[in-house]
Write a structure and sequence with these properties.
The protein is mainly β and 135 residues long. The chain has one helix and ten strands; from the N terminus they run E-E-E-E-H-E-E-E-E-E-E. The protein binds zinc ion.
């Protein structure tokens, strides 16, 4: 089935992902695809990507990360927001899906909270009134 999303320039940061039709609350929108790598490799790649101003490494489980920049899809362009309209759900420690937290209108930008942990600190430009200024 065709995914109800497309990507274009975002007001938040770089490219973003937008809905191509209305999306229902709890709808599974798109899977976060990419190369499955060990966390140690994920840490190295995170640092490299952050130097270029992106972060496409997504924690899958205790052992593995997913690198959306390799064999990934447009889910990697979804921006962080402090008051997002989507969340990520991991099924069986194997698949990460972007799921709608609420009803999303056509052409709205999709966002989720990256919930970054550890040493990574990126300034947030999400523009939300609840923004904590840090991703
Ligand atoms: Zn923010």
């Amino acid at each position: 089935m065709k995914k109800p999303v497309y990507s274009k320039k975002s007001k938040i940061e770089g490219r973003g992902v937008f809905s191509s039709r209305d999306i229902k609350k709890d709808e599974e929108i798109i899977r976060y695809e990419g190369e499955k790598i060990l966390k140690s490799e994920g840490d190295i790649r995170s640092e490299k990507q952050l130097k270029k101003g992106h972060l496409y490494i997504f924690g899958l489980n205790k052992k593995y990360d997913i690198d959306g920049n390799k064999n990934g899809n447009i889910a990697k362009y979804i921006n962080h927001s402090c008051s997002p309209n989507c969340e990520t759900v991991t099924y069986d420690n194997k698949e990460i899906w972007i799921v709608a937290l609420k009803k999303i209108k056509q052409n709205e930008e999709l966002t989720y909270n990256y919930k970054l942990t550890g040493d990574i600190s990126i300034a947030c430009k999400c523009g939300s009134s609840r923004c904590v200024k840090r991703i």
